[in-house]
Specification:
31 strands; 6-stranded mixed beta sheet; globular; alpha+beta
Amino acid sequence: MLKNKYFWIVGIIALCVFILKPTIPQKNALISEIVSTEIPVENSGLELFTRINKEKPFRVNVEAKGGQKEFTEGDRIYFNLKSGESGYAVLYLESQGHLVQLLPNYWNQNGEIKKDSAIQIPPKDSGMLLPISSPAGMMKVRALVSKKPLELADMSDFRYSLEIFPHIGLLSYLKKEEYNLSEKSLSSLKSDQWNSDHLDIKTKLLPQLKSQSSEKILKAWETLGIDVTRGVRGSMPQIAPRRSPPLPKSEGVIVYYDKGHSTRGVGDSGARITDSVFSDARVVSSGDGTRGAEDEKDAQTLANEISKRPGVKIAVPNYRVYSFAKKGSLNEVQWAMNHLYEPNLNQDLKSIQKQIQKIVPAQIAVVDQGLSVNDKRLSELAWVNKKEIANNGKDDDENGLIDDVNGYNFYLNNTELYQEDEEYNHGSFVSSIIAGRLNENKNSFLGISPKSKIIVAVGLGPQGFGDDLSIFKAIEYAADSGAKVINLSLGGIANKKRYEQYIAAHKRLWDKLEKKGVILVCAAGNDNINLDETLCLPACLPMPNVLNVMAMDPDGYPGRYQAPDKRWLQYTNYGKKRVHLAAPGSLILGIQTKGKQKLDYGTSFAAPVVTAAISLIWGQNPSWDYKTVIRAVLETVKPVEQLKDKCRTGGVINIKAALAWKP
């Protein structure tokens, strides 16, 4: 991890698939996870950008949002670059002695710029802005435009990577030596072929808000002496919740064919489920017809071409989805159930445990990364498909899937629910919040609904990302298997076009879920953005059976995480119109994989609190329809001053009150 002075400015916002799983910045991460390599300025060739062309043959102008030159922590900005001549642009940002390349980028890999046409960075259709974060100071933006392409030295391994750094997207992955702008390249330009501009921006920090309860929970965790990897004394890692990628990478194209149309030889996406709304769907790519990574623009072009073919009803990109993921007893840190430090925010579930134990909870499904059933603390959580005989190699229940005894993996198209060597299973963490059980393990703990059984519908791969069709199939499977409430702690930012495609192209699925009365509980995302202005899917689906959940921290503020400089910074998305309510989501206790537990941050961990509550409410009142259950949740929310105007209800879930509510 870099020293605190290097953690600066732009912490790039994430899209919706979030696992909304918080991630630890890697050792070679730069400036709030925004770039992949630590590049000291003295070794970067930055001096080339400080050169001034005295002849100024054409105009080059770079400015920040609204022409401003001073911003405050939490502001979200973009840059505009304009040139008086067509050519090739390079844009760098310098802060604390390090560089970030903003152009070329994922969307404009050649840095091309047209005469008198401004380039916005990030692009308007990316659905994202750059957030200003700590520490305060000065950042310098340098732009250079030439009529000939500029060369970067040693470019053989150059690439824009959403694979290695899925929460970046905007920025390039470059080795140290590759940041050197070629002296030969610039010196070979005539004075009438290039010009440059620079912009200096001041940034200041917001005052720190109350964090006493959060600090006490961290201290209690350290006192417990539980290390997340070895079972010995350890400390809480300083992490930032995973943000959404700017726009999800495409995994080919989802093609819906007319009924009866032959698809032999067309790329297949796995097992066929009987009576599925996806029985006429295939995933194809421009390559060999199987799932393959596609550039977003190429995928949209391919979709447009395929949609014109005979027998095709509709074709849309199959976007990638990510998870969102930030002495005594474990009860001391389980503030989501019993808050020892803020009485006004206490769910007080301890006082109603007898009531909870009498409830037969409504069926829950978790569409996520799986479940570590090799941990005895989690093995009893798994739902059992009584119509399927284990390990006989047959599809006993004739649903098109073989041996789906506890669930199915729609990303890998098999029955693997976990990986033996996994370090973090996001689905395990989510499930333990919902239905953790006490057993002989000293590190076991109760979940919100400890009698619940969970249908394991895997839609995310081992690296924490999946794709639209895998997620959709997992959701449908969960509903067809009897789930009344489905937890979706995943998603991503969407522009208007993707949002419209997401709703229209897959309308049969949304209609089926609403008709069945299935409630979808969605994490709002970890980008610290207003969802009334920027869309996130599936959280922003405009359906009556969808709940959009933001995170609240132990002090009652919109979800915050502790940054490396010990400051508490907001991560949760919010929205007075599109977000329904808040739930505890910071410093949440969960099981990350076999034998390992930790406190974590993220709206990923707020959503399962609501999911578990719905299971209890519905289990206590099985005759209610989904609309009445949702009313019980929303009409009993506890108002919290700091959440006012951050969500529709302006408060946090009140499980005890919801269980006592009558229509």
